[in-house]
Specification:
The chain is mostly helical. It has helices spanning 3-8, 21-54, 58-74, 76-85, 88-106, 112-126, 129-140, 143-174, 177-198, 210-218, 228-232, 239-246, 249-270, 272-279, 284-314, 319-334, 346-362, 367-373, 379-390, 393-404, 411-432.
């Protein structure tokens, strides 16, 4: 590194041993994902009591549980555009505070319609979250560390759900379901303020020295993403940009694969607690404990996935093999939930669900493929499209299951989930192909 480069770098640390600010950023992403998924899953915790209070049938419950997905999916492309235009330091706290305030008001809702409207608001304001995560990790991590970083922050969704689902059920039992939303929303407001005051892009950060920034850059990290200079000079989106994002077969492979993967996730985020309470006749405290076990399994899966993927890459496996193999194996394992149809044993049901959700966790490094495949100037738009199509499952899964199941038979839901996972495997095998960045 030349003396002029060192002097011009916008950092306050002396050049020498690289700092580790990227690990702090990964932990910040982790905590944000914990809050994000706590606010996605709180409705599933409260759903049985809300259904009793408002007299909702299974179809109405499915509609309420899907309300998040309507706006979350619809806002992915506008959200992706915003991610390409607005710095993560500013956009993330705005989104955090807005969706958290909507969550708080859900605890004050007095009608079925009000709950749906507020839940749609939560979905809309959460839409840019994962494209922001992807932009941050692409800026802060070299390629050889990126899957581990993605696996780590993605684990936040499972850690939060595994540890906090019993807490939220206890809170609901001790007080009322209203407090589930008030407390979770309040946490998000506080964290939004923390993010604004702490987060900076690599080239704007005073906590990352020039050696760390160079290490990230030389390893393939796009260190200027979201910086002051890059944001101010960003070109407008064109029809050609949308044509590029929508016109490549390998991108459609990850879009379809993400829909299939997140279908399993949304089953656990919406219907799973109701399944245990209504179809397995468990009380709320026992449900809180048992419902947390598959999330613990998913946590183990996602932590293994990122480390395994990067280890394979470092030991000479191709980028495609390193990234796709854990995803395909995970989708195969997620099909095991169909075993719940064939047993009356609660222990066996939880075992099948835990294997399935372990597989979902193992497959949850899909954003590493967005980082690897997306055009470098369209990471936000590609991430938005990826999340838009993937999270159509947040609409389809609750509604389809609500229509398929009866008051006494939940089996069709498991058949549907198994078929969807199989489609995901086919998409990764036959559509994605060689993993390399898409260009114009």
């Amino acid at each position: 590194m030349s003396q002029s480069t060192a002097l011009s770098a916008p950092v306050s640390q002396d050049v020498g041993k690289a700092t580790k600010m990227r690990y702090v950023v990964a932990f910040m992403l982790f905590l944000t994902v914990v809050i994000n998924y706590m606010d996605r899953s709180n409705l599933s915790v409260a759903a049985p009591l809300i259904a009793d209070e408002f007299g909702l049938d299974t179809a109405q419950q499915g509609l309420l549980l899907s309300a998040f997905g309507w706006t979350y999916a619809a806002m992915q492309l506008p959200g992706g555009w915003l991610v390409d235009k607005v710095q993560p330091r500013l956009l993330y706290p705005i989104c955090l505070v807005l969706w958290s305030v909507a969550t708080i008001f859900m605890g004050m809702a007095g009608s079925f319609v009000a709950l749906i409207v507020l839940r749609m608001a939560v979905g809309g304001f959460e839409a840019p979250a994962y494209p922001i995560n992807n932009k941050v990790v692409t800026a802060w991590f070299p390629e050889r560390e990126r899957a581990t970083a993605i696996g780590f922050y993605t684990s936040g969704q499972f850690i939060g759900l595994a540890l906090l689902t019993p807490v939220l059920l206890w809170l609901q039992h001790a007080l009322t379901w209203h407090w589930v939303f008030v407390v979770t929303g309040g946490v998000g407001v506080v964290w939004g303020l923390v993010w604004y005051f702490v987060y900076r892009n690599p080239v704007d950060s005073k906590r990352a020295n020039a050696a760390e920034v160079d290490y990230i850059r030389e390893g393939g990290g796009l260190v200027a993403l979201g910086s002051d200079e890059a944001t101010n000079t960003k070109a407008k989106l064109t029809k050609a940009d949308f044509g590029l994002v929508l016109g490549r077969r390998k991108l459609w492979g990850i879009y379809i694969g993400q829909f299939c993967l997140t279908s399993t996730l949304w089953f656990f985020l919406t219907w799973f607690p109701t399944y245990l309470v209504t179809y397995r006749q468990m009380d709320y405290i026992k449900t809180g404990f048992l419902a947390s076990l598959p999330f613990v399994a998913a946590l183990v899966g996602v932590l293994i996935s990122g480390v395994l993927s990067d280890l394979m890459l470092k030991r000479g496996a191709s980028l495609g093999t390193s990234r796709k193999l854990p995803i395909i194996i995970g989708l195969l394992l997620s099909m095991s939930m169909i075993g719940a149809i064939f047993t009356d044993s609660t222990a066996m049901v939880i075992m099948f669900m835990s294997i399935a959700f372990f597989g979902n966790g193992l497959a949850s490094i899909t954003w590493s493929l967005v980082s690897a495949l997306a055009p470098s100037h369209l990471l936000g738009l590609t991430g938005g499209m990826f999340n838009f199509i993937g999270n159509l499952s947040s609409i389809a899964t609750p509604i389809v299951i609500g229509l398929l199941v009866s008051a006494t038979d939940f089996g069709p839901a498991f058949i549907y989930m198994t078929v969807v996972a199989a489609v995901g495997i086919l998409a990764y095998v036959f559509l994605v192909g060689k993993v390399q960045r898409v260009g114009s």
